[in-house]
Amino acid sequence: MNASKLILGCLTLLGLMTAASAHAQQEVDREALAERLAPVGQLCLEGEDCGTAMASAGAGDTGTAGDAIDGEGIYRSICMACHETGAAGSPVRGDEAAWAERTGKGFATLLDHALNGFNAMPARGGNPNLSDAEVRAAVAYLVEPVMDVPAAADTADDTAAAPDEDASATASDAAPAESGADGEALYASAPCAACHAAGIAGAPKLGDTEAWAPRIDKGMETLYASAINGIGTMPPKGGAGLPDEEIKAIVDYMVGEAQ
User: Fold this and answer.
1) 20 to 30 A Cα–Cα from 181, which one of 56, 77, 204, 245?
2) Nearest-5° Cα angle at 135, 130 to 141
3) What is the pTM of this model?
4) What's the CATH class of domain 176-258?
5) For residues 237 and 171, what is the distance between their CA atoms, to the nearest angstrom?
6) What residue ranges do the domains of the chain occupy?
7) CATH 1.10.760.10 fits domain 65-159
């Protein structure tokens, strides 16, 4: 009798354990199924908050905002077109000789040039949507092989410093106030030469009659509008921020060279 009760108790316990195990397995299966069925993206309509606040919050959990910015990625999508090829006199990344004089001015000056433009380089590399922090991250990656990059906090307020004398002189020389602007001089000192001298990103080269022909056929007003408002990968006014009349003078010069 006692043996029968013992056997019955063992069977009951085994049944309970089996049921508990099956229930736990069901929970695991549900979670795995839910994970497999989870959407891989989110539909976002124009004007809605497309999760940027959540992304920002997530970035804050992993470190400072600067730490989360992919400087290399920004460099490769914006800056490398010139800084990997040396187009328009751009110093090539890692070329210590080309960077020697520039790095001697300090990181804050290099950052100021990147933010505000310098010689043929447009402000923010021609992408006005880049934040100051994103520009800084790209510059840090660009110059990392040739100089010690200071911590972000050490240069946070440096961009408000007085503008570099060379940059001021260039800006004043490149932007005559009178309507009879010198298109050739403006072209040489504005960001236009960075792409149009080498045909970067599909830009028609200066003097290339064949490349310019279909564009000229559309008429000068269309060319003016494209230059002022931006078209394709070219930002509005080539990122130069010059008055409309001076942009038109540059277009006139470039068209004249192609005819």
Assistant:
1) 204
2) 135
3) 0.43
4) mainly alpha
5) 15
6) 65-159, 176-258
7) yes
